[in-house]
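Long-time lurker. I teach an intro course on protein structure, and each term I like to show students one example going from raw sequence to a predicted 3D structure in token notation. This year I'd like something fresh instead of my usual example. Would anyone be willing to generate the tokens for the chain below so I can use it in lecture? Attribution to the forum is fine with me.
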Amino acid sequence: MAPVEDQTETGRLFVISSAEPARTTVGRALAETLTKAVFIDGEVVGDVVVSGRAEVGDEPSSEAVEQLLFRYAGGLVLADTYRAAGFDAVIAEEIPSLFFEDYLEIAAPETLHLVLLGPTGDAGATDGSDAVGLRLDPAERDVPETVLEIIKRQHEAVVETPEG
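-- Reply from a regular --
Happy to contribute to a lecture. Here you go:
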């Protein structure tokens, strides 16, 4: 795939969200397609916690929620560091609906391009809302086609954060 040119001074912020591992594959492929981009895997950011780790389960503890929000903030801070240098940042992150508004508040005031991977009719996906962002079903196309669709329809993915 040929690189896609970006004329902006500050890089764009793409967030690829899904409960499925496809978010990582699609996110990395998108970053590789852009002219100047970084890829940030939310799971890797979460793995910096090497002891005292609390996992988010069906009924998450306050410690698990705090660590998840730190994970989100860490990924976004890293993205902002590179975006300030003109890189586009692509974050692959699972954002359960319970924490969707929290994610947007942490991302504020940045505008982000939110791509939700999952069945297009699945209102119960972990994206937080089927009313915002660009929803794509990765089963309907291969990874390069999914990336091209994201690039073509990136205007549909724009989500304003609370302060954006």
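Some talking points for your students: Strands lie at 13-17, 37-41, 88-93, 112-117, 134-136, 158-159. Confidence is low (pLDDT under 50) at residues 122-128.
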